[in-house]
């Protein structure tokens, strides 16, 4: 079976790939620039993965692939806008971590997703999954 660049399995595998590579990159950042930068990258990486998961759940509800509950949708939107964005603003405002590490960590899951999606175009046909 060929792996598609759309669908829940592709997104789950991209999230796992972002987490695994993010841990390695975070350790490299901590080794080179200190633990404040490494932990800032890790915190924003986890935030980015949580945001990605909530956004995927919202999109599943809106496209009819998930539960059609307006209450669940409202709670997820509230969690995204108030909870996750509130945490991000608080962490940026308090300046506990360096800003460049935060910016790289926030964008890491999207970067990995983009690389995985473009990989099929770069190397030709998608790999087969057994």
Using only CA atoms, what is the Rg?
17 Å
Query: Tally the helices: what do you get?
Result: 4
Strand content: under 5%
Compute the separation of the termini in Å: 6 Å
Number of strands: 0
The helix-strand sequence is: HHHH
Largest sheet, in brief, is: none
Overall number of domains: 1
Look at the helices and sheets and give the structural class.
mainly alpha
- As a percent range, the share of helical residues equals over 70%
Identify the overall geometry: flat
Report the uncertain regions.
Answer: none
Mean pLDDT: 82
Subunit arrangement of the protein: single chain
Describe the structure.
- Helices cover 79% and strands 0% of the residues.
- It is built from 4 helices and no strands.
- The chain is flat and about 45 Å long.
- The mean pLDDT is 82.
- It is an all-alpha fold.
For the structure shown, list the relevant keywords:
single chain, 130 residues, mainly alpha, 79% helix, flat
Quick recap:
The chain is mainly α and 130 residues long. 79% of the residues lie in helices and 0% in strands.
Sequence-ordered SSE layout with sheet pairings:
Blueprint: H1 8-33, H2 35-62, H3 70-94, H4 99-122
């Amino acid at each position: 079976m060929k792996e598609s660049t759309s669908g829940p399995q592709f997104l789950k595998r991209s999230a796992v790939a972002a987490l695994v590579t993010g841990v390695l990159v975070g350790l490299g950042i901590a080794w080179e620039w200190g633990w404040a930068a490494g932990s800032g990258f890790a915190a924003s990486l986890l935030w980015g993965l949580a945001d990605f998961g909530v956004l995927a759940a919202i999109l599943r509800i809106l496209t009819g692939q998930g539960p059609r509950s307006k209450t669940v949708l409202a709670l997820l939107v509230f969690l995204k806008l108030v909870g996750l964005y509130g945490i991000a603003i608080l962490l940026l405002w308090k300046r506990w971590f360096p800003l460049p590490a935060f910016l790289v960590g926030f964008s890491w899951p999207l970067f990995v997703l983009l690389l995985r999606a473009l990989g099929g175009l770069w190397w030709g046909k998608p790999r087969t999954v057994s």
